[in-house]
Amino acid sequence: MAGVDYSMLIVAPSAGPATVNVLKAPTYLIGVVMNNQWLGIQLDPVRIAYIPNVSINGTQLPIIPVSYPIEGLQMNVIYQVSGQIVVYYFGEPFEDSVPLEAYSGVVANVSATNGGTSVANVTTQVTVNFPQGSLYLTGIAYFVQDTNSVFDQWSFNTAGGLQLTSISVIGVAGGGRFVILPLDFVPVAQSLTVTVIANNVAAGKTHQAIMIFYYSF
Q1: Pairing of strands 16-21, 48-52
Q2: Could you tell me the fold of the domain covering 3-102?
């Protein structure tokens, strides 16, 4: 029967790579609960799976279901920030579990500062570098980290000459696949430049957000 066999709560000692000691193997990582916007898990020397969570003021799910076989007694993870709280669930994957490889991605940080004396729209650009040459985007998640912008508009041109554009939502809820804009294997080069417009940023304020670009070779 699908479900949790055991779980572990860990507080990240620092941001960046860390090792999680698994209590019993072989098993499956079947889900996580966390604060902040993402948790990274090293799949191989090239790929990192970024499990997406929620924007500021978003609603937490009791579990974000994934499916990832664990053969040994260690798992290599990447924490977003020091002090990040993560609950790892192990057991038998659920029917709606997402294979962890589907979350292979790259994280980009967005920062837009209004240095003026009145409310203004602020435009900035973010460059994303993928681990290999031309590949395909399968989805994008966008997480705002403050309320200094009413909404963000982002856009970029694909390798096929078409444009993709969308807007952010401050109260993103759900985590996992529910916060990802699915893409139909959109071709992109190894380097991608994204234009972000933060709307109605107050004078002297800096707006920050995180984008996760999910890809397939």
Answers
A1: unpaired
A2: Jelly Rolls (2.60.120)
